[in-house]
From TrEMBL:
One of its GO terms (biological process) is methylation. It comes from Phaeospirillum tilakii. Belongs to the class IV-like SAM-binding methyltransferase superfamily. RNA methyltransferase TrmH family. This is tRNA (cytidine/uridine-2'-O-)-methyltransferase TrmJ. It is an enzyme of class 2 (transferase). The gene is trmJ. InterPro entries: Alpha/beta_knot_MTases, RNA_MeTrfase_TrmJ/LasT, SpoU_MeTrfase, tRNA_m1G_MTases_N. Keywords: Cytoplasm, Methyltransferase, S-adenosyl-L-methionine, Transferase, tRNA processing.
Length: 254
């Protein structure tokens, strides 16, 4: 076993007898996408720091550099209190079965109590052996199309890591505002000034010509723009659009 201090509390990803260094690299990439860095390798067949592995990691080199090698699965899980074993096959063992989402929620709860958890993944061609599964507390199975459940190693890791990450991710993503000159909602005075500008021109072109319908039409138009939560910059753009339309109409009528 190689030396290395334990990383911050988060589930360990344990690859048991992985065959190809590229797959270790893509696994590292999948892990870092979701904030996981504790990669443990049980008797890997190839060098996880090879050029092929580093290239496949696509920038997740630090996960590879921090990876720890173990001779046996038992050694790799020795410091963990709860372990999940990924398999899609019936192993004829009495064990609870979780989906990735269920496992992620349980792991988050255990981490909050200070417990360390890990997830076992077997060799690419054969999957985990029964002796490996026997070391786990729970079987983890991904519910997929029953006619085709084949996943590559990195895909399987990403599915589980993603569920763990989402279990404490924000409910909504921030809006894409980078580079915008005015990203906050416009004050009502700017919105009302635009309404008045638009309504003057709609009166001038005859759109609001029916007196009985005019109040309802104005309310409907205002509600359309209210729902848009316009920024100050967007209102300026709308002013410009109305101005250009009016200018074009007057120039055409001249």
């Amino acid at each position: 076993m190689s030396d290395g201090s334990a990383p911050a509390l988060a589930p360990a990803i344990i690859l048991v007898r992985p065959q190809l260094s590229e797959n270790i690299g893509t696994t590292a990439r999948a892990m870092l996408n979701c904030g996981l860095t504790d990669l443990r390798l049980v008797a890997p067949r190839e060098d996880w720091l090879s050029d092929r592995a580093v290239a496949a990691a696509s920038g997740a080199d630090r996960v590879l550099l921090a990876a720890r090698r173990f001779d046996t699965t038992a050694e790799a899980v020795a410091d963990l209190t709860r372990v999940w074993a990924t398999t899609a096959r019936d192993r004829y063992m009495v064990k609870p079965v979780d989906t990735p989402r269920q496992a992620a929620n349980v792991i988050r709860g255990l981490e909050a109590e200070g417990q360390r958890c890990g997830v076992l993944f077997g060799p690419e061609r054969t999957g985990l052996e029964n002796d490996d599964v026997a070391l786990a507390d729970t079987v983890l199975t991904v519910p997929l199309n029953p006619d085709y459940t084949s996943l590559n190693l990195a895909q399987a890791v990403l599915l589980i890591a993603y569920e763990w990450y989402q279990a404490e991710a924000p409910d909504s993503l921030p809006a894409m505002t980078k580079g915008a000159r005015d990203t906050g909602p416009a004050p009502k005075e700017k919105l009302i000034a635009f309404f008045e500008h638009l309504e003057r021109e709609l009166d001038a072109c005859g759109f609001l010509r029916v007196p009985d319908k005019r109040p309802v039409m104005i309310r409907n138009i205002r509600n359309i723009f209210q729902r848009a939560h316009l920024t100050g910059q967007e209102i300026q753009t709308l002013h410009g659009i109305v101005h250009e339309l009016v200018t074009f109409r007057l120039r055409k009528g001249a």
